[in-house]
Design brief:
22% strand; 185 residues; seven-stranded antiparallel beta sheet; 34% helix
């Protein structure tokens, strides 16, 4: 991939895997997303492995925050209903996360809330709900756009590619693809 040194309009797919998985590889994984833990929450090894992967993804976004808007003065979250999910009964959710999830569950699927982020703890709550596919989460961190996706993937835009690759390398995630599209409108 040609590395750009300019902030650009490309959209980047950031993932925990270092390549796009085949169907067979997906089928052979212990988990692809949080929903795979639903019937196996007593498997502490699996839950621990999941939490390590989730922490790596959140660590990447926290690195983006340190790079783009350390004080969160110009950072916003847009969030909308994504899934009710029985998995919210798992002990991996904080009371604050359950309150956010219950609040948004009363809205129509097409509705989207937007608020300015106030703290890194609040950022983490939204990120976990997004990575766990309970909410659709879109972040604007300074000028950098981050969106949670399916199977613990992330989409990032408006960041210098060299900085993105450096942050990804430092936090143990991978940039798998880039394409053109505008997301925060």
């Amino acid at each position: 991939m040609h590395v750009s040194y300019l902030t650009n309009h490309y959209l980047y797919w950031v993932d925990r895997f270092d390549h796009v998985l085949s169907i067979e590889e997906c089928n052979n994984r212990a988990f692809m997303s949080f929903t795979d833990l639903a019937a196996r929450e007593s498997d502490q090894v699996l839950v621990t492995e999941y939490c390590q992967v989730e922490d790596r993804l959140i660590g990447f976004i926290e690195a983006v925050v340190e790079h783009a808007d350390t004080a969160l003065q110009n950072s916003f979250v847009r969030y909308s209903w994504f899934s009710a999910g029985a998995e919210t009964s798992l002990p991996l959710f904080t009371p604050a996360q359950l309150a956010i999830h219950q609040d948004i569950a009363t809205l129509d699927r097409g509705d989207e809330n937007c608020l300015q982020l106030e703290s890194k703890a609040q950022l983490r709550d939204f990120l976990q709900l997004g990575i766990r596919e309970r909410l659709k989460v879109k972040l604007l961190i300074g000028e950098v756009y981050v969106e949670t996706g399916f199977d613990m993937g992330l989409v990032v835009q408006n960041i210098r590619e060299d900085n993105l690759l450096q942050l990804a390398s430092r936090t143990g995630v991978h940039v798998l693809r880039k394409w053109e599209h505008s997301m925060w409108d």
